[in-house]
Amino acid sequence: MITRDIINILEKKFPKINAEEWDNVGLLVGDYDKEVKKIQFSIDASLEVIENAIKEKVDMIITHHPFIFKAIKSINEQDILSKKIRALIRNDINIYSIHTNLDSSVSGLNDYVLEKLGYTDYKFLDYDEEKNCGIGRIFKLDEEKDLKKFIEELKLKLQISNLRVISNDLNKKIKKVALINGSAMSYWRKAKKEKIDLFITGDVGYHDALDARESGLAVIDFGHYESEHFFHEVLIKELKDTNLEFLVYNPEPVFKFY
User: Fold this and answer.
1) Is 64 part of any known ligand binding site?
2) Using alpha carbons only, what angle is made at residue 160 by residues 44 and 51, rounded to the nearest 5 degrees?
3) Residue 215 located in a structural domain
4) Do residue 110 and residue 217 come from a single domain?
């Protein structure tokens, strides 16, 4: 299957225009006309990920996180980003990233996280009416629950061993929740204006956590990697009618808990 046809399938459901302005999505290295038979899905384009793709004779890597954001002024083997680009070109491997357009689109990754938790009814936290997409989902639990009980359910349904909780009271009653996969603590104040009881995201920093706690808002940091590593499940649904071969390769999370 031609690369551009694969991209067209994905971007029909998750348009590139739905990505945030700062994002860098799309075909980052490669050839739109390249024939693709085998795709590797990886959340990040680490050197280990690229080396695995070479070993497995992959034609195309699809990542969630782009590995190129800033302008590149030189490409040499001594620089890690350059080393990746050289390896991809040398081995004729395309790399395509689908990031915030996958997060924010209807039936995208944020919706899929809610689906895993058992919720389908929601409203957008930050809605773009023209594009019919947006960052964040606000939903209500079927019944009021203790924060501690909800935490255990969250860990079980998303298969997370450890997470961070910002709250003075684990017995606090939870009913209305806002959730954003990845890294989105910058939205906690906007979410609090919606009179939520709990905000869930990843990459929570100390000062934001302190401010949120003092405001009375409970926060769960369920991890950046942990909330997105299954992004391939969303994409494979869109590509299931093709004859493509898929493999998933994600090294261990960057952060480990001991």
Assistant:
1) yes
2) 25
3) yes
4) yes
Domain CATH code at residue 32? 3.40.1390.30
Total domains in the chain come to: 2
Nearest one of 139, 65, 60 to 102, comparing CA atoms: 65
For 112-127, letters b (16+ CB in 10 Å) and e give: bbbeebebeebebbee
Asked if residue 65 belongs to a known ligand binding site, the reply is: yes
Residue 192: which of 154, 138, 150 has the closest Cα? 138
Range of the domain at 52: 3-102+229-248
51 belongs to an annotated ligand binding site: no
Q: What are residue 198's DSSP bridge partners?
A: 177, 218
Long-range contacts of 207-213 (CB under 8 A, 24+ apart): 209/166, 209/185, 212/166, 212/188, 213/166, 213/167, 213/168
Contact between 179 and 139 (Cβ < 8 Å): yes
pLDDT in tens, 90-104: 999 999 999 999 999
pLDDT in tens, 163-218: 999 999 999 999 999 999 999 999 999 999 999 999 999 999 999 999 999 999 99
